[in-house]
Design a protein that fits this description.
alpha+beta; 11 strands; 2,3-Dihydroxybiphenyl 1,2-Dioxygenase, domain 1; 11-stranded mixed beta sheet; globular; 3 helices
Length: about 140
């Protein structure tokens, strides 16, 4: 498993960029991705140390991230890892008492590669991305 990003839920991507830029320092950003399959808008930002943050905003009123925004819980939402084989990693995590949050789905930001979310036994959310060689393409430096 290769670390990819820390996911943070925001109301609007532009507001999230402003807050993160001022507080945690990301200066390079990818394009914004509209992902109707996963019902979110996402954008990735990189700080000077190379740490990647994913901003996640609702796509529709039924978006799965609306609950986090409504309750203020799970705003720092998940840690994501790229994997070569989602099926084998899914079985490994299930064997470690992780539970499935949702079925695997294609993600626009990863060129249609499958993503899947799991809840760990200590209640942390983990995303696996079946795109071991993916690199985010940052297009803006502030």
């Amino acid at each position: 498993m290769i670390f990819d990003h820390i996911g943070i839920v925001v109301t609007e991507l532009s507001d999230g960029r402003t807050v993160l830029r001022e507080s945690l320092g990301p200066r390079a950003w990818t394009e914004e991705f509209a992902d109707p399959v996963n019902d979110v808008h996402v954008q990735f930002g990189r700080d000077a140390a190379g740490l990647c943050y994913e901003l996640i905003a609702p796509f529709s009123p039924k978006s799965p991230v609306r609950r986090a925004l409504r309750t203020g819980a799970n705003i720092t939402n998940h840690v994501a890892y790229r994997v070569a084989d989602l099926a084998s990693q899914r079985e490994r995590l299930l064997g470690l008492d992780f539970s499935l949050v949702a079925d695997a789905r294609p993600a626009v930001a990863y060129g249609g590669a499958l993503i899947q979310f799991f809840m760990s036994p200590v209640f942390s959310l983990v995303e696996l991305i079946e795109a071991p060689y993916h690199e985010h393409r940052y297009i803006a430096e502030d």
